[in-house]
Amino acid sequence: MAVIAPAIGIFLVLKRYSLIADTLSHVSLAGIALGLLLGINPILTALGAAVVASLGIERLRTSKKVYGESALALFLSGSLALAVVILSLTHNFNANLFSYLFGSIVTVTATDVWIILALAVIVIGMLGAFYKSLVYVAFDEEAAKVSGVPVRRVNTVLIVLAALTVALAIPIVGVLLIAALIVIPVVTALQLRKSFTVTLIYAEIFSISSVIAGILASFYFNLSTGGTIVLIMLAIFIVTLVLGKK
Q1: What is the pLDDT of residue 199?
Q2: pTM, rounded to two decimals
Q3: Architecture of the domain made up of 4-179
């Protein structure tokens, strides 16, 4: 997850679409609530909800009937309300739910690991297949459209991959913190003002280092894994920002 999140995040950040991760995480919470209600693996229902919502958001955005930020707000507030209603019906405000909200590696099952691994391979493969088009569209969507790049298809692929990434990371980082894993390493790497490829490499380094350090710190000091990872990421961002100014 530390490898995949920045790889998706760099395209979202460059397209000024960072809040999509936060929106999809709240949609995934509704999917988790549905899974708890129906007795289905919550990761699977979170994946389904996130993918369907991502397609709906992209459809609204491209239709020009609703501005991009407004579409995100609609899905964010609506899915959060739906999750609260479903959870109030099932009375599932328990430790299992809190592990999905804030992340907990110890509650991740072997089935979850295999699902995460399989879909992670798919995400990386799709990124590799559409890499050049994604870079072109991220920097200049209009020029890409004029050049014959299927912009709508590329944007759809990106937002679906973002949905998969968000849903996959929920058991580890949690619904409330997943956006940080996708956005913060990329924003940190952008402070170095390097080329696209170098920025992506630095983002991966920051992400992997933060995740490993966060896991170790949470283990030895008995802390929340997701929260510790995000705090370390923020610390690296602050150091990079200060050094960048100097």
Answers
A1: 94
A2: 0.86
A3: Orthogonal Bundle (1.10)
